Amino acid sequence: MLRLAVTGANGFLGWHVRVLARVLGWPEPVLIDRADLSDESRLAARLDGVDRVLHLAGVNRGNPVDVAAGNVELAAALVRGLRRCATAPATVVFANSVQAGNGTPYGDSKAVAAATLMAARPDLVDLRLPNLYGEHGRAYHNSVVATFCRLLAEGHVPEVQEDRAMALAHVTDAAALLLGVPAGGSWDPELPMLHLGVADLAERLTGWADTYRTGEIPPLADRHDMRLFNTYRSHCFPAHYPIPLARRADERGELVETVRMHGGTGQTFCSTTRPGATRGEHFHLVKMERFVVLRGTAEISLRRVGDDRVLRFAVSGREPVIVDMPTMWAHKLVNTGTEDLVTLFWTNELFDPARPDTYREPVEADRAAPVAVPA
Q: Which superkingdom is the protein from (predicted)?
């Protein structure tokens, strides 16, 4: 287990790095903020003796002069702190960009920042990351993927101003590369790329949004489709849930159609839960999981990993609804009634004990580091 220090820890990439470090069972990272970077003595104290420093902080939007100056100054500030450490960090990693040195204010400033860090740490691990996509990216800021997902989640239609080819990596894979960990069941530091055009992205996401509006699962052909769909779902949550289900009744009884998946694999199981008992208390990195209460009453509660706010949904078998668990949100179900609760659970993939993609984490109270658990 490595002791980490992270600049830019509250950004898109920084949050995913922290989630993966938590999955790995590492101690909570030392979070380096702008106040630390502006005080070299304070920064040196916070960096002293850590195993690995990840420099993720940067400026990629705004006035070109501010973008250029900001990236260089952030690197220079980190160097000043590193030079004052009594025990220098073992490894310093820079989240550079494939755009470094491309003649733009952003690209050239990233190249200068790398050179600044390298002058102080010739052993710098300089990683030139491609464009990234993934859950909870900021629309109009992190990527066109986040922007299109937000537009669709709000009921708008993405407009393609310029179609161009793109090569994208999922942010969890980039986090694994930055942390220096080998491939796992839900991450790959080799950065497998998603290749598509802007128009293709808009068409694919729009089709998925149309299908998912009523809770139907669109065809998801591969790993990137699943992660791209999870990215879209992250922009839908929590405003689009619960999703109501139609009940059909005749003299024989009632029928509720809980899952319609257009292609692909999946696994469905039903459980009873005693009054007051809890199921869940875990999160997933990739797996999609659906809860549908068929009999009884329950509360489904969720908390985004690293955050404190808990969201709650009161659900009942009298009016069945869909609540799909967003990736990287701890979730649980509690029977709030006086009789056994009957719940249908569905996941998009067959359970694999070797790669469960399930990490224990309480939704509330004391939050110990997660560990992989069986279903």
A: Bacteria
Q: Where are the domains of the chain?
A: 4-203, 243-360
Token pair 């489709």: residue: 225
- Integer-rounded Cα radius of gyration of the chain: 23
Helix axes 223-236, 144-153, angle to 10 degrees: 50
Burial of 246 (0-12, 13-18, 19+ CB in 10 A): exposed
- What pLDDT is attached to residue 92? 98
3-state class (DSSP) for residue 307: coil
Q: What's the topology of domain 243-360?
A: Jelly Rolls (2.60.120)
Cβ neighbors of 307 (< 8 A, separation 6 or more) are: none
CB-neighbour burial class of residue 172 (10 A; exposed 0-12, middle 13-18, buried 19+): buried
Domain 4-203 = CATH 3.20.110.10: no
The two counts, helices (H) then strands (E), for the chain are 9, 20
How far is 114 from 100, CA to CA, in rounded Å?
Answer: 9
In this structure, the number of other CB atoms found within 10 A of the CB of residue 294 comes to 16
Distance CA 72, CA 173 (A): 26
* Token pair in block for residue 339: 């009789």
Hey, what are 307's tokens? 């955050």
Residue indicated by tokens 């998009």: 348
* Helix ranges (DSSP H) in 250-341: none
Confidence (pLDDT) at 366: 57
